Every structure is written in structure tokens, then in C-alpha cells.
Amino acid sequence: xxxxxxxxxxxxxxxxxxxxxxxxxxxxxxxxxxxxxxxxxxxxxxxxxxxxxxxxxxxxxxxxxxxxxxxxxxxxxxxxxxxxxxxxxxxxxxxxxxxxxxxxxxxxxxxxxxxxxxxxxxxxxxxxxxxxxxxxxxxxxxxxxxxxxxxxxxxxxxxxxxxxxxxxxxxxxxxxxxxxxxxxxxxxxxxxxxxxxxxxxxxxxxxxxxxxxxxxxxxxxxxxxxxxxxxxxxxxxxxxxxxxxxxxxxxxxxxxxxxxxxxxxxxxxxxxxxxxxxxxxxxxxxxxxxxxxxxxxxxxxxxxxxxxxxxxxxxxxxxxxxxxxxxxxxxxxxxxxxxxxxxxxxxxxxxxxxxxxxxxxxxxxxxxxxxxxxxxxxxxxxxxxxxxxxxxxxxxxxxxxxxxxxxxx
Length: 409
What we know:
The protein folds into two domains: 31-250 and 388-407, Thrombin, subunit H (Beta Barrel); 257-373. The chain has twelve helices and 15 strands. The protein has helices at 31-40, 69-72, 156-163, 167-176, 183-190, 235-243, 258-269, 271-294, 296-319, 324-346, 353-370, 397-400; strands at 44-49, 53-58, 65-67, 78-81, 87-96, 101-106, 130-135, 144-155, 193-198, 209-211, 217-226, 229-234, 248-255, 376-384, 406-407. The chain has a six-stranded antiparallel β-barrel. Helix 7 (258-269) crosses helix 8 (271-294), helix 8 crosses helix 9 (296-319) and helix 10 runs antiparallel to helix 11. The longest helix is centred in the last third of the chain and has 24 residues, at 271-294. It is elongated and about 80 Å long.
């Protein structure tokens, strides 16, 4: 239910209330909360990856983004979308899998171009102090404000014991499945410090900031056990990560689009399929040429319509390019679309039909060729600096233990 009076003009989540989508009537908050939201919104970002959504915030004038490690673990590409819709590619700078924190650096960031949020020690929080979560529940935009009250600091193990009498047995069973090198990390993970607050966060909020009344970050949205309770990483953990060298190395490589990757993969693993795909493209060209010969006006108008749609899409990609590689890929794609569109229109004119077909064919070839431009910089490997082969602790560890806890990403 949504309170009937004093609704805000921005999205709010409160304990005990269902989520209302942006634009729908929202719960009431006081003037202090309204000002806090307006002042901090430009510093809160949505994190998008190839596996889902999360949240984060701008940590300093260099644009470094703080978030929860589980938001990006398991994904290859990461982006930050600011409140005004600007999109930046991200690369992981440091990650702490045991405390579920990550610091990422944006590509093509102009230093000092956006406001940032300062950290404050979570140890200054007292029971029943006002706290405010910020994030993008369900991937919704703009960011939601989640007001609530701090309860206490505790270890994750104590929290899990309070939720389930079987937790110790589940952890011991899990430990038996791990190698001697992996066990210490799990033990440290379940004994990590967390903040317990009566606050409503949802999947997609993970990694967003938990703010105190002074608009400083005292924690990071992390876990959910019910709509009434949220759990947060203390700000001291990401402060320590910021000052530490980090224990992981991250390797990024440039790759082409999904179509090109699939085609290359087929040539390596299934040449018969790759040959069939190649012949299929050639057959499509012959069929298209036949249609233009038999029904020049219908075929030309259809090709022009497809070309216009593709040009609109690729031109939008060019305008929103996040780096020079994106500009190259979408520039080539747009040029191909433009040539194809011009050629399709030319086929409607009898005397220009041959030239139109040539331009249409070249344009389509250029558009397909743009898919092979390596414009995606993806995470290909995470290794420990000490050379140990132990992977990062799984972000789904609580789920694997069969506990009623789930991450907020």
C-alpha cells in the first residue's frame, strides 16, 4: 500500500510497503530526506553488466565507482549509468571478495565533472540513527531512496545463526567440499562484519550507498532477508580496499560483437555450420537481387525501410559511443546503413537501378563488417597476485548453503 498524503515526486521504498514504479504515487518522506535525495542523486549510478543490474556511487573526483563485489563477479562487461543517462565503460581496479566490495574506474571520465560522496565511519552509527539507502531496485530508474533505522553491527555468522538453526551444519558441510587453500576464505567470509538496519532494499540495490544524515556513505547495500531488513558492508571495508594494493589482477581484452564471436567460434568448432552460414548470406543476397529484379518498387521500398531502421539504431550507438572503438564500430555501421539506404532508394529509379544495387550490396557488406570491429573490452581473467589458484569466493555462497538470504543485485 502507498500512503495517500504528502507523496514525493521521486521513487521511495519503505519497510512494509510494496514497491511503486517511477511515476506512480510514492510514500511520504520529510523535507530532510527530500534534500538528501536531491543532493546525492547526481553521485549515485546504476551498474549494468552482461549478467544483470546493480548500483554504485562516485567515490572521488577521479570518478572511481564503489559498489559490491557480487554485482560484477561472474560478468565480463561493466558499465555505469549516471542519473542524467550518461554511460561509461568500467574496469575493475580493486576487489575484496571476502568483504564484498569493489572499486572500478570509468573510461573517458573527465576529472571533477560530477560530484562525489565522501565516506564516514560506520562505527559512528548508533542504534535507531536514521540511515538512507540509494539504488536501483529491479533495474528501475531513477534511483530510489530507502529511508530506515540502523540497528546494530554484527558478524554475518551471527546474523545467519539468528535466521537458521542449521547454519553451522550447512557451513561445516560446505567446508568439507573445499580444498585446504579455499577453506580459510570461506571462514573469513562468514565471519565478516556487517551492518543490520531496518530498511527496504530490493534486488538491483546492491552496491548502492547507505548514507547517514550528513549525506556521507557509511555502508554499502549488500544482502536482504526480508522487506523489513537489509544488511550492509561497513564503509571501513571499502576505505581499507581503497588504501590497499588489492589481492587480484584483472585482465581485459578487446573483442568484437556477439555475431562476430559466434561466427569465429563456429569456424573453430563447427566448420560445417560456418560454411552453411556463409552460404546462407550469399543465398540471401541472390534472393534479394531477384526480388529487386522482379518487384523493384516493393523490394526497394522494403530495403529502404530496413536501412532507415538500422541507420537510426547505429547512429544512436555512434552518438552514445563510450570510446574511440565504439565510434569506429558504429561509424562504420552507420556509413554502411547510409550507403544501403541510398542504394535502396536508387533502385526505385530505373536508370539508377544497377548503381543502386551496387551501393546496396556494399552498404550491407560494410554493415556486416562493422560487427567484426573489436569494440568491447571484456574481463577475461581474474588471478591472485600471490599466484594462488584459488578463485574469488562465490557471490552466491549463502544460496549454496541453503539459507534464506539473497544478494541485492
